[in-house]
Automatic annotation (TrEMBL):
NCBIfam families: YifB family Mg chelatase-like AAA ATPase (TIGR00368)
Name recorded for this polypeptide: Magnesium chelatase family protein
Domain AAA+ ATPase, residue spans: 36-219
Family assignment from sequence similarity: Belongs to the Mg-chelatase subunits D/I family. ComM subfamily.
Xref: Pfam families: Mg_chelatase, Mg_chelatase_C
Database matches in InterPro entries: AAA+_ATPase (IPR003593), CHLI-like (IPR045006), Mg_chelat-rel (IPR004482), Mg_chelat-rel_C (IPR025158), Mg_chelatse_chII-like_cat_dom (IPR000523), P-loop_NTPase (IPR027417)
Domain of life: Bacteria
GO function term, MF aspect, one: ATP binding
Gene3D superfamilies in UniProt: P-loop containing nucleotide triphosphate hydrolases
Amino acid sequence: MDLAEIFSLNGKYDLDFSDVKGQEQARRALEVAVAGGHNVLMVGPPGSGKTMLARRLPSIMPELEVEEAVEVTRIYSIAGLLPSGISLLTRRPFRKPHHTISEVGLVGGGRFPRPGEISLSHCGVLFLDELTEFRQSALEALRQPLEDGEVSVSRSLITVTFPARFILIGAMNPCPCGFRGDRSIPCQCPENLYRQYRHKVSGPILDRIDIHIPVPRLTREELLRSPGGEGSEIIRERVKRARDIQRKRFVDQRIKENSGMTQNQLRTYCKISPSGQEILAQAIDKLRISARGLDRILKVARTIADLEDAKAIELPHLAEAIQYRSWDRERP
């Protein structure tokens, strides 16, 4: 059996986006995220479908390349998690650690350094459900790996570097009771309690998450409707085309996706018209967007343009990218 057959037989997923009812905005945002390698924060009440959406993300990601599959297999072998009888992992990882996980468990470490969850998510998805319940130290430890795509674990006699290029999907309730902004259930949280809750996820972490999207509860009509949205295969084909554009754009450069662009690359590939500059200025004033947050908007806008095979970033692309910073509007 050759490699193509192995990937064809073992690289398929049981979960599909056609299973999801409603949530068109979230579905679109996740397509943009996968197309450009962007991190996502989903905010919504319990039962709105955040976990269901996240679990289906690997099904719209392009198949692992051989080099990627070898890297993932090595990581799982080092961690002692390679399934018996499997010589090559061909599915993109999906990791969902519990919120009680330690910093070492998340980032890696131990007396004999072993990869943590962020490296076990390499080339796949790291899903942090109930984001506000994770230890602050564990969340803050994500900051550098999210920037560098790798993590170094140091001990007295040795320093080991593990790859850690993954898409982070965070999920949280909008407030402690879970119903702030709900269309029918009023929020019961005092304002000071809400502010404390929001501050559990720091500004620097939020700035490293490119896309913030609300995932509201489904209406009665949406709940009763049969699933019938686009399937994962259709979405994956659009993602592949957008990634092919990026691969050609960044040929002979160190990155493959828009999410990894440097300042110089932003200036080269994300030029904005005067009218676009005006829209960005308004967004900065209204949303209190940081310099890093502005870079995220430009990267996401570039990905949206790539999904449409557009040479330049146009006003609709910018407007959609700004819309994905919705959580910035709610910052206390």
